[in-house]
Amino acid sequence: MSLLHIRDLNVQFHDKEKGQEAVRHLSFDAAPGEIVGIVGESGSGKSTAMQAVLGLLPDCAETVCGEILLGDADITPPLPGESRKEYERKMDCIRGNKIAMVFQNPQTSLNPTVKIGRQIVETIRAHSHCSRTAARRRAAELLDMAGIHDGESQMDKYPFELSGGMCQRVGIAIALSCGPELLIADEPTTALDATVEKQMLELFRRIVQETGTAVLFVSHNLGVIASLCDRVLVMHDGTLAEEGLVEDIFYNPQHAYTKTLLARAKELQKLSACRGDQKKLLEVSHVSRCFAGTGGPGRRDMTEAVRDVTFHIRRGETFGLVGESGCGKSTLARMVTGILAPTRGTVLYEGAAQPVRPGKQNRRVQMVFQNPYASLNPRMTVRDMLEEPLLLNTDMTEQERREKVDSMLTLVGLDPEEAQRYPRAFSGGERQRIGIARALMLEPGLLVCDEPVSALDMPIQEQILELLEELQDSRGITCLFISHDLNVVKRISSRIGVMYAGSIVETGHTKDVYNDPWHPYTKALLSSVLVPDPVKARRKKGMPHREEQKAEAFDAGGCPFAHRCGYALECCYTDRPKNCRFDGREVACFLYSEEYTGKRSRGYRMTSQI
Amino acid sequence: MKTYFRKNPMLASGIVLLAVMVLLSVLIPALSPYAATAQNAELRNAPSSFSHLFGTDKFGRDIFVRVFAGTRISIAVGIGSALICGVAGILYGCAAGYAGGKADMLLMRAADVIDAIPSLLYVILIMLVMGASIGSILLGICIGGWVGLARVVRGEIIRLKAEDFCTAARLLGVGNGRILFIHLLPNAAGPIIVNLTLLIPKAMFTEAFLSFVGVGIMAPAASLGTLIQEARSQIQVAPSQMLYPILVLCILILSVNLTGAGLEKTIGRAEEGRW
């Protein structure tokens, strides 16, 4: 008995002269209480298909569909040219009541000027006749169901006062407010941090158990799909490539596209080889950076984005820096490059301090940026962009510059013929290659990569990582690799540092840290890594966690993680833990300090305390 | 041409109209047998005829020539003020936006002070001091006219300054001037061009208004404003005398506005990546 029944769904976009088929011949079913995952690259038609089900496509989209049934109701969209009036009236009753949607970006899908309580209450009252107080009581219940336990007090807050995860919970509460039979979730965890993502998936699972709704879960992340869904649809270029139970898809894929997708994901899982010698290239010691708040000139509250960070990078290695959004990774990267000056502490490159004003000497540190769409000047051709650093810093002749640009483009895997084109002619992955080529033009010693693959699709991610590795092998470039994605960091770096709320809580060799995390936060982070393997993903247990909070550096003393830590001691709330060093590994946690474990002999071997 | 017209009818028709007006204003006063100020006592308030297309006014002057001589002044004032305001506004906005911090605060507050005084006041004051001429009208319009553009440019520069490509350029050793003029300004070209185009009709209207009130171009020189003012006394005898300059002024301002709106659309489209 299926709840949603779709046969032969086609969507075509008409954009002036050129037409574009976004979805072709899509047919599938979803049963009540089932979580159906829809996976595919961006542009494969996942979201378009979902919008077609809801009837939310813009006018330039033409939907031709065999039939869509929801339970007993026929919600087949009218053929182009037919009257949409009756369909729209029907959909107004269906949307919200029977089908609800959870959006990708929780902070933009809620109205920022209305308190969340009112947003939920209004949704309830729009669909059912009940008094304001009854609706409010129901709203508190819904928030509790969505994992916000002090719902009553949270209802008086505005969306911008809540963290991304909390906003998404509110979004889910709104979606659940009318007891929908079908919940469509369009990449609901993509914008969230790893630890929150994990909790969110647990929440979805619980909701399905409690309410028996069917969930269509759209995601590009195979790990998310593997750990949550019962059945999986793999979409490729607007068509359904493969459909099956999650175990069948992951362990016994039939379609060639599914196979390549899984192979790419598996490659992301492997550990990188250790590189680098013992000589230190970059030394960052006790660096802090404060930003003035927006409180006006009278009452300025300073926020400390980075607090007392110490680490070093050896020549030729890749140092991975991992942490949640807002933990100060990017600020640290900017201080390493010299764009920002540290408030306290020093950054030494080859033993010399990094000057704040970019001068001749710090062209040795270059940067690859996160967003390939914003990091290239849209009004310059690729050749102009790549020639510019040579023009300004070297005495090369025009011929030499041209040759250098051509060879660099070939090196990063682009055709030198295309150098005359503007950035908008290139795809995201190609743009990122151009960004890398530009960073390499001056032969830098250290390349700071600030989330270079976060904006890209999984197969493209792997290609860019491979390119970075090749470049490292052939040119001996040292890399500081920053990412929030643990899989990516693990894949490329030989040593990693884990950042939380402005401080580095643990550093060590990637292998050691991954196999045996010492700091409670590292453990929490690692337990939330989603592997594209259904059996393994489901076996993983979550950490004892408390209510989530915004991960900001606290002004008060004490360990920043203490409020979320399941192992917090009394001293964690009052004193800051010092860095404890055990050959090659550093942990900032009281569990490893001498006060806690007692005096140690010289030959003592530290093991994990948690 | 035809496909272009269909793609952006506003821009195409605006440019065609404007080109026709410019051409007429250049050619007609130059080629006409009558001078703009030559009086003919025998032909007062004559109706339209082949020798005087728009007829003559109360002094027997040919209105056809006078209208297009006035259009010359309008176009000169419009384009001249757009150029001066454009250069001043772009440079000032760049300086404020790129410097940021205290310099930005001081510069923009100074601009606010200049902008707070109505521009008519400047114009009338300058007229009184320097006498009525195109130069003093231009100066009067331009004293406060650049502030709006400076604000737009400043906003754009501040937005673009924070973009990653600007950071990348700084890391590669690009100097301030080059960042500003090669990396930032071309990316702000869209809003700048649109705002610049919209300055032109504003200046044309101000000139016509001042001449109408009697503090602008002085008789016997012909400006569209003075023509309308002079026709006022003859409205009961020959109402068509007022019709022609008003019509030409309307077409002129319409054509520039159409061009501006069309440019805005084209640039918007170009920025989305569809040329």
Notable characteristics:
heterodimer; A: 610 residues; alpha/beta; Rossmann fold; eight-stranded mixed beta sheet; six-stranded mixed beta sheet; 21 helices; 22 strands; B: 275 residues; mainly alpha; MetI-like fold; 75% helix
Question: Your description of this structure?
Answer:
The complex is a heterodimer of chains A (610) and B (275). Chain A is α/β, with parallel strands linked by helices. Among the domains of chain A are: 99-179; 280-597, P-loop containing nucleotide triphosphate hydrolases (Rossmann fold). In chain A, the strands form four sheets. Chain A has an eight-stranded mixed sheet with strand order 16-17-18-13-19-20-22-21, with helices on both faces. The longest helix of chain A has 18 residues, at 194-211. Chain A starts with a strand and ends in a 13-residue tail after the last helix. The model of chain A is unreliable at 546-554 (pLDDT under 50). Chain B has a single domain, classed as Orthogonal Bundle (MetI-like fold). The longest helix of chain B is centred in the N-terminal third of the chain and has 37 residues, at 63-99. Chain B has 275 residues and is mainly α. Chain B contains eleven helices and no strands. Chains A and B meet through strand 16, helix 13 and helix 15 of A and helix 7 and helix 8 of B. Chain A: This is Dipeptide ABC transporter ATP-binding protein. Chain A: Keywords: ATP-binding, Nucleotide-binding, Transport. Chain A: One of its GO terms (molecular function) is ATP hydrolysis activity. Chain A: It comes from Extibacter muris. Chain A: Residues 6-262, 282-526 form the ABC transporter domain.
